[in-house]
């Protein structure tokens, strides 16, 4: 992709993010996201579902009952696993208009130079009553606070641009989407110690009541 940024080791931002989600606190977060997303996808029907990006090498589409699953990889050479896949620029999907029932965007918007264009592409390929499911970091959470402190290090996942819910809702409204559900989860801080993170699992139960804006 023409606007992809690389670090001194010649790794693109997306490749760095992929590696972060593949282990440690990234893998733990990803597992929780997959559980939540599976619940959402189970209730959505259709013929074709498209996942844009393959964060951490795990497919978020496993919980969907839709039989034809597609993966649009954003990193060249990325394995598509059991689902048919292709590599492309997420701001220019090689998919026919009005052909997809569900588009899933797992942590795509915050690491894309033009996130609004990604949403426009999602709207273009979706059928009239199609759904887009978005996963992202909340800038008003503990993770957002960590980003403010660590963004200067330019390491994943802090180098992303965390987009607030209000802005995303405004973008979706401009594209004639109707927001039908919002869920906030994973209230544990982004600590390196997996042992401590597992001990703090109770925060996920308390979070929706104590920190509803997160």
Fold blueprint:
Elements: H1 13-21, H2 24-42, E1 48-52, E2 68-73, E3 85-87, E4 100-106, H3 115-125, E5 126-135, H4 142-150, H5 165-174, H6 194-199, H7 202-210
Parallel strand pairs: 1-2, 1-4, 2-3, 4-5
Can you offer a commentary on this structure?
It contains seven helices and five strands, in the order ααββββαβαααα. Residues 1-10 have low confidence and may be disordered. It is α/β, with parallel strands linked by helices. The longest helix is centred in the first third of the chain and has 19 residues, at 24-42. A five-stranded parallel sheet has the order 3-2-1-4-5. It is globular. The chain has helices spanning 13-21, 24-42, 115-125, 142-150, 165-174, 194-199, 202-210; strands at 48-52, 68-73, 85-87, 100-106, 126-135. It has a single domain, classed as 3-Layer(aba) Sandwich (Rossmann fold).
Beta-strand content: 5-15%
Question: Mind telling me the CATH class?
Answer: Alpha Beta
For the record, the count of structural domains works out to 1
The fold-level CATH name is: Rossmann fold
